[in-house]
Amino acid sequence: MNNLRSTIATVWRIAIPYFRSEDRLAGRILLAAVIAIELSLVAIQVLVNQWQNRFFNALQEYNWDSFIWEIGVFVGLAAIYILLAIYQLYLNQWLQIRWRRWMTEVYLRRWLSSATHYRMQLRGDIADNPDQRIAEDVQLFVDKTLNISIGLLSSIVSLASFTVVLWGLSNDAPLQLFGTQVSVPGYLVWIALIYAVFGTVLTHWIGAPLVNLNFEQQRYEADFRFNLVRVRESSEQIALLRGEGAEQGQLTDRFGRVVQNWYQIMSRTKRLTAFTASYSQAAVIFPYVLVAPAYFAKTIQMGAIMQTASAFSQVQGALSFFVSTYRTLADWRSTVARLDGFDMAIESAAKLATEPQTIDVVGHSGDSIELAQLLLKLPNGLPLIAAEGFRLESGERTLLTGPSGAGKSTLFRAIAGIWPFGSGAISVPGHAKLMMLPQRPYFPIGALKAAIVYPAAADAYGADRIKEALAAVGLPQLADRLAEDGHWNRTLSLGEQQRLGIARALLHEPDYLFLDEATASLDEPGEAKLYRVIADRLPQTTVVSIGHRSTLHDFHDRKVELIRDGDRFTLRPTAQPAEGAE
After folding, report:
1. How far apart are CA 59 and CA 278, in angstroms?
2. Is the peptide bond before 455 cis (omega within 30 degrees of 0)?
3. Strands 542-546 and 512-516
4. Phi/psi at 394 (5° precision)
């Protein structure tokens, strides 16, 4: 019961914001229309139940005129029912896509806001595979929540409507036990209630493990799919290392978890289906058995027995809503749990940036980047870099060196405002535009022009200017491919990607350019040429580089080295002449 209340509270928390959003008017109108149609369909079912009595009585009495009339009545009711069912489905789907679109936009905005997606990875939060949460679980949540809610409402209204009918029929067809008439008011209603409670309790007892099994199945499927994508994206390295056998072994192992969990679902589903199928089949004949004695005692007609069976089926079906939708409910609860975990992971990562023991990146009116009492930490809390009173002056070109693992890239991340672990403050000029170029730059899939100017809009720069930048970095052969779509991180070599990253910097003209081994895949002459291009075309840009080649010294005004100091590294500036930059 506590789990059920928790699930309902979670569903309310996830679902209700849409109906209070900017799209609330359309959402509420569509929901009201779907509910109104559902109530109308229940009303038609009540009319059909009454029609069954008259129709079968006409058959029993060989009344041709009544038979023809009732056929016409049925055709009219069926036509109205079909029309309402069609529009209910249409409006239901319309509401689903609007609701899903709104939820998807909200989750995308929260996930991509202020590097939250990056902090979630750093924390290793429980929301694995965010792509599945947004693309699949949102759709499942909207679909199942709407259909289960409408189904539950229909069951409640049907129960109320047909209980009245069944209660009256119980009086018309008194209970017969061993040839003796027993007066039990509304006995058919009580029997239907007992039958449904019995089925519900046993269904839950048999099927409860399916909730966790379905949750694990989705996780294993997503994990297997993610690793397949990873193999595809790393196919060159795998082929060079002859790692196909190892990858197949790992993928087979991950798929083995999918299969093993699926076998458990099969076993549990078999037991659940065995009971629910038996329960449903027994429900077909059960009402006839109850009222047959009254029929053979000639106290009721054929129409009454058919109406009683139909009404009993409706009441029993409404009371057995939990039984008939148990598998759907189990899947739905798993979906709700996954979305709830994704929500918590986003909130946890967002709070990480505002915790007291977090690096504070602030804007100021000066022209330099200043580090004040900065202490960078690893996610496990161990200290990494300490810096006090360190400045990156405007227009200065600085080379940052140090041993591997000293935290050079982490320092760049902190300055960019995405590294939350640590304390102290980083002051950045309020008007300054920063650009970070990593060793492997990112290019979105699509047109080459859009990939180069990212994250700006594709039309932010003219084609001639982009071609000029490509020629400057040594990629004139790409000038005629700007409109071509491609997966550029896979199509281009790493050296070409690094040249393209420099072209991006030339277009954006940042005030501060941070190069994290951004030319390491080029030969020394090619690297030197790019640094000269940066010096010529971005003379006002402050450049900070991470690199290990001694040839880089000539293109920087000073060298800063990370030196081990106890359990952390500290920054030690060293003067450096800029000979080759002339």
Report:
1. 32
2. yes
3. parallel
4. -60, 135
Q: Please, where are the H alpha helices in 320-462?
A: 321-324, 326-352, 408-416, 448-453
Residues 6+ apart with CB under 8 A from 403: 562, 564
Q: 3-state DSSP: the chain helix, strand, coil percent, rounded to 5?
A: 65, 15, 20
Structure tokens at 402: 């140090």
Structure confidence at residue 579 (pLDDT): 46
Query: Is the pLDDT reported for residue 542 higher than 90?
Result: yes
Q: What is the pLDDT of residue 171?
A: 73
- 350-396 tens-digit pLDDT: 887 677 667 888 888 888 999 988 999 998 889 999 998 899 999 99
Rounded CA gap, 299 and 112, in Å? Answer: 72
Q: What is the mean pLDDT of residues 185-197?
A: 82
Dihedral (Cα; 238, 244, 249, 250), 10-degree rounding: 20
* Residue 512 pLDDT grade (very low, low, confident, very high; cuts 50, 70, 90): very high
CB-based contacts of 51: which residues, under 8 Å, 6+ apart? 70, 73, 74, 77
Longest C-alpha distance within the chain, in Å? 115
State the angle between helix axes of 326-352 and 244-296 in degrees (0 to 180), rounded to the nearest 10: 140
Nearest-angstrom CA–CA distance, 198 and 320: 9
State the Cα–Cα distance between residues 275 and 547, nearest whole angstrom: 68
Q: Does residue 297 sit in helix, strand or coil?
A: coil
Characterize the bridge pairing of strands 383-387 and 568-575. Answer: parallel
Strand 175-177 relative to strand 180-182: parallel, antiparallel, unpaired? Answer: antiparallel
Q: Determine which helix (DSSP H) or strand (DSSP E) holds 470, and give its type and residue range.
A: helix 463-472
In what helix (H) or strand (E) does residue 436 lie, and over which residues does it extend?
strand 434-437
**Which residues partner with 485 through β-bridges?**
447
pLDDT of residue 316: 79
Measured in Å, how far apart are the chain's first and last C-alpha atoms?
A: 76
Tokens read off for 294: 């009254």
Per-residue confidence band for 411, with pLDDT thresholds at 50, 70 and 90: very high
- CA dihedral of 461, 462, 464, 470, whole degrees rounded to 10: 30
- 112 vs 121: CA distance, rounded Å: 12
DSSP-assigned beta bridge partners for residue 323:
none
